[in-house]
């Protein structure tokens, strides 16, 4: 399998509008979201049903993405809500839109684990 180009991202998941939030970081956003949505990672996101993408940022490097994740985790809840509402005022699940954009960019990209490497932070 060819090695996929890394696309560092920080993201916020939610269960329902103004509900529980989770801030995460990954090098393959689509694959990571698919894993969350399928409940394949036991823990906080699975326990609280956090599988709707409320917010994300693509970053230049994983170091930058990790630093931004730490920054967002230090945000107050109100500041996180304001950040989400600044780009997603209807609290849509952005995952389907992300899939649509990606599928236009590269054929076969609808397979969320295509190119997902074992060394990706899960």
Summarize the structure.
Helices cover 39% and strands 16% of the residues. The protein is of the alpha+beta class and 122 residues long.
Task: List the defining traits of the structure above.
alpha+beta, three-stranded antiparallel sheet, 5 helices, disordered C terminus, GIY-YIG endonuclease, 122 residues
Q: Kindly identify the CATH topology.
A: GIY-YIG endonuclease
Oligomer: single chain
Rg over C-alpha atoms, rounded to the nearest angstrom: 14 Å
Mean pLDDT: 84
**Helical percentage:** 25-40%
Provide the structure class.
alpha+beta
Cα separation of the termini:
19 Å
Instruction: Give the domain tally.
Output: 1
Instruction: Tell me what portion of residues adopts beta-strand conformation.
Output: 15-25%
Shape, per Cα inertia axes: globular
The CATH architecture category equals 3-Layer(aba) Sandwich
Keywords: Endonuclease, Hydrolase, Nuclease
GO molecular function, one term: endonuclease activity
InterPro entries: GIY-YIG_endonuc, GIY-YIG_endonuc_sf, UPF0213_domain
Protein name: Endonuclease
């Amino acid at each position: 399998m060819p090695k996929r180009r890394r696309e560092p991202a920080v993201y916020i998941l939610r269960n329902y509008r103004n509900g529980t939030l989770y801030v995460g970081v990954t090098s393959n956003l689509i694959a990571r979201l698919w894993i969350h949505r399928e409940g394949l990672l036991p823990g906080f996101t699975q326990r609280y049903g956090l599988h709707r993408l409320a917010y994300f940022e693509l970053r230049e490097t994983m170091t930058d993405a990790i630093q931004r994740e730490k920054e967002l985790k230090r945000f107050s809840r109100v500041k996180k809500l304001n950040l989400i509402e600044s780009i997603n005022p209807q609290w849509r699940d952005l995952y389907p839109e992300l899939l649509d954009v990606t599928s236009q960019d590269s054929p076969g990209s609808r397979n969320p684990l295509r190119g997902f490497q074992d060394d990706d932070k899960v």
